[in-house]
Amino acid sequence: MAAAFIxxxxxxxxxxxxxxxxLASELRLRGHEVVTTRxxxxxxxxTRVRDLVLDAEEQVDxxxxxxxxxxxxxxxxxxxxxxxxxxxxxxLSDRYADATVAYQGAGRGFPEELVAxxxxxxxxxxxxxxxxIFDLTVEESRxxxxxxxxxxxxxxxxxxxxxAFHTRVRDAYxxxxxxxxxxxHVIEAGGSVQETQSQVMKFVLPCIEAxx
Length: 212
Ligand code: TMP
Known about the structure:
With 212 residues, the protein is of the alpha/beta class. The protein contains eight helices and five strands; from the N terminus they run βαβααβααβααβα.
């Protein structure tokens, strides 16, 4: 059975990680082999990079940040994503290259061409077959982050950026979707888990069917 690479993107609190888990179960029920992973942190090396780059106590220089995400991705693509796709598995990744375009490009302000070069180097040209962007307002994202921190969840370094930063990230994701309408689809993530899940299936089913 042919494999597919599906990525989940969006600003924090968009519910993408929950949706990824639901989709993985759904695909397994249909008899597919599925690998779930994430960036940063999809490999043992990546887990260590994740701890460093998201450490709220660390003063990470923006260029160091860009390169750390790229290092995580280079390892992830070569050690996990490509081998899994080559063995016919579905790979579902919680974030991938579009996150660098949105967060380091639009969020931090690195030039588009530089970000594109770094992304191309790290991915070796591997782009997802399908990308779902879970969209919600920055206000709702903040509200959900607040709820999580009241429940005791730790905030990471990027969670504490201001609303203007998250607005630039959200707008960049929407621009990516507009520029690549075949690969990238926007899902309205402000509703219930079930409502969001039915939108996910609407985009994923044709992708599965195309692969037999
Ligand atoms: P997560 O909380 O969704 O796992 O994402 C971790 C954080 O890392 C999130 O704030 C977005 C950020 N990030 C980037 O800034 N650039 C990247 O390339 C990736 C993959 C994540």
